[in-house]
From TrEMBL:
Protein name as it appears in the record: Putative membrane protein YabM
CDD domains, sorted: MATE_SpoVB_like (cd13124)
Alphabetic keyword roster: Cell membrane, Membrane, Transmembrane, Transmembrane helix
Source taxonomy: Bacteria, Bacillati, Bacillota, Bacilli, Lactobacillales
Glycosyltransferase listed as a keyword: no
Membrane topology (UniProt): Multi-pass membrane protein
Record field: transmembrane: 12-30, 51-68, 74-93, 113-137, 169-189, 210-229, 241-260, 272-290, 296-318, 338-358, 364-386
Entry keyword Chloroplast: no
Localization per Swiss-Prot or TrEMBL: Cell membrane
GO cellular component, one term: plasma membrane
Amino acid sequence: MGDVSLTPLLRMVSTMFLFMPLLATGRGYYQGIYDVAPTAKSQVLEQVVRVSIIILVAVLAVKLNWSVYKMGTWAMASSTLAAVASTLFFIKFGSKLIKAKRHKFNWQLFKILVKRFVVEGGVICLLAAMIILLQLVDSFTVKNSLVSGGLTQSMAKSMKGIYDRAQPLVQLGTVIATAFATTLLPSLTEALQKRDTKAFYRSATSLLRVSLTISMAASIGMVALMPQINHLLFGSSEGSLALAVYNLSVIFAALIFVYNSILQSAGAVKPTLVAIITGIIIKVVLNSWATQWLGILGASLVTVLSLAVIAGVMNYALPSQLSKRVYREHHFLRKLIWGNLLMFIVVKLLVIVLQLTVVSPGRFGATIITVMGVIVGAGVFISYIFKFRLFSIREWLTIPYGSKILRMVQRIVK
């Protein structure tokens, strides 16, 4: 990482992993028996504790004039303390495991379980950590490459900080897209269990279309408003181009999660593994070179390229019939691209008009423009989807609040 002062921060956050086995097993067990309450409560408590400690540390750091490293170390302690708090929900479960009756060891069953755990569990872990692994490569290469490219140590640290602004935005966009799309997963699983090929293709098509539509809209929307979002959240518009490019990752990340759901439900694990390893290799090989030549914009481009390659390899592994149904049937992809282009142009024109006539520069002005841009952009895009029938009635109804949106748009159009 090029900075030995980060050592205490890394040591502090590493203690969090001591609590992962009980947390992962407990949450997985209760979700497996369809009782999501303990998992939900533990996650809410975890976030409350983490955020509370981070806010407290920020206040103390300002009042006591702490260094950024000391502040970071205590902020990282929030992860460990949050893990301790959320573990409280699973103490009873853990004691049951300890007291459970011991069964005779079955070597054959053990080998089967280990194989599934390593192969399927490994792929799931790689997929879940995909964005984090790409960020890990950035942690080891971006700052050093910026220095090699001619920046001073302090400037390189500053630019790396600006680059890192994209991470929560990408995570937010990806979570929104996958949350909407995963509402269709039960119907996909049911079709596979019943060996209903027609229903499987129908559900998979809807799943991919909904995911691609929402992820692309979220990504392009953030690209259109990035200078204002950057100013609103971080106090400056510096690095907005690099952040805008980075946010294109949302499209490919959302597709990757959905592709994996389809492939894994069909028992195909190898394509996901090959795709992720290929993408990470591309990131490792190209990141330093691109960052030296183009700065943080180069790192953003390589991240998007890596995710695009992962998505491309996984798409190649899907049945060709499915890809044709998703992207070519009724010119879906072409209509989707035109819809996003229309939304982008309308939002950009709105931003220009507001900047010239109404809104004063500054954080408050950025807030007004961002809120107005989101409302107008969403209105334009939803109307476009309805007008050009990108979604069937069935697909509308599978989206959370889709029926309400459908009725509202129908009333407006009429």
